[in-house]
Amino acid sequence: MRFAVRKWIEQVEEIVHDGGPPPGEPLRRAVAAAVVANPVAGRYVEDLGELVEPSDVLGEELGRRARALLAGRAVEGYGKAGMCGVEGEQEHVAACLTTRFGDGLRRGVGGGRAWLASTKKVGGAGESLDIPIAYRDHLNVRSHYDTVTLRVPDAPRPRELLIAVAVTSRGRVHARVGGLTRAEADRLVESPGPAEADA
Description:
Blueprint: E1 5-15, E2 27-37, H1 49-52, H2 55-68, E3 77-84, H3 90-96, H4 99-109, E4 118-122, E5 129-135, E6 146-150, E7 160-168, H5 182-188
Helix pairs in contact: 2-4
């Protein structure tokens, strides 16, 4: 891996219920993140290939780590996000989270046809990073729209990047706002591979 990793972060929560009757199966949400050096911080660089090229390896490793946190349950929802320290720029995060990263993430989690929603921002150590989540095979399944928040007290430092992925084992525990269901979406999806490039 060509990214210089300072540390890995893992976060898991299991939601048994959210005020209503417990579902048959709790919702498990997991985050895997890496704090890496930003080799282009503090200067304007036209070609960001130095961040794009190794991102597939990072995406796959983060996907593998996140999937393991589901403790044997399949990945149903996924998303990605990144935060750049204040000596970098938002475009540095974007370069780390392109389709190349998304393809690696899909390998790490065991597949996925839908594009990956993402957030990208510049911030300081300890600032919150919201990671959007959607159903991995079809973007329009409302029950799987979710968000996980990550805070790392000492990251990102000014010349670092915090790159994160989130996965879920099912939709929200009390999802009941209608729309396309997971079963309906599965019937619509016929061809393997991503439906479109990642955002």
